[in-house]
Amino acid sequence: MKEIEILNNAQLNFIQNGLYMLTFAALIFITFRLIRFQREANSNIFGKVLVTIFGLCTVFFGYNVFSYLYVNQLSQSYSLSELKSTGVELSSISEQYIDITGHTVADGLPSFMPEPAAIVFLVTFAIMVIAGTWINLSKD
Q: Three-state SS across 13-62?
């Protein structure tokens, strides 16, 4: 693969991930609306279970979206450093991307896992879904 092909492929991945991120934002909105609706309607156990399942599916979707983003970033750096290791001279932008990302051929292929800040966000969101559905959070 040539440098331009690697960069174009990465840009297409970022566009795709942006669309998934918009979907994830919409699912977060729907999840919180469902939690609010089931609390206002004083939903039974079956309703709470369904809202919890939907919320946790949203968390899993977010895990995939964040993982794809991080893996795409590391894979771009890996591919560029692989190209560099074959003796191809890279542009200064690609060199800088490898330096910033820090993932090279020596590190091997990246694993499918989001970055730590995304994990904290997803765990917080999962706790909010479960607590919002099952725990009485009012001051009374």
A: HHHHHHHHHHHHHHHHHHHHHHHHHHHHCCCCHHHHHHHHHHHHHHHHHH
How do residues 76-135 score in pLDDT, each as one tens digit? 999 999 999 888 889 999 999 999 988 888 888 888 899 999 999 999 999 999 999 999
* Helix, strand and coil in the chain, % to nearest 5: 80, 0, 20
| Whole-number Å distance between alpha carbons of 140 and 135 | 13
CA dihedral angle for residue 123, residue 128, residue 134, residue 139, rounded to 10 degrees? 140
CA pair distance 95, 80, nearest whole angstrom = 8
Neighbours of 10 (CB within 10 A): 18
What is the rounded CA–CA span in Å between residue 111 and residue 7? 20
Domains of the chain by residue range: 3-134
Which pTM does this prediction carry?
Answer: 0.87
Listed in sequence order, the residues at least 6 apart from 88 whose beta carbon sits closer than 8 Å to its beta carbon are 3
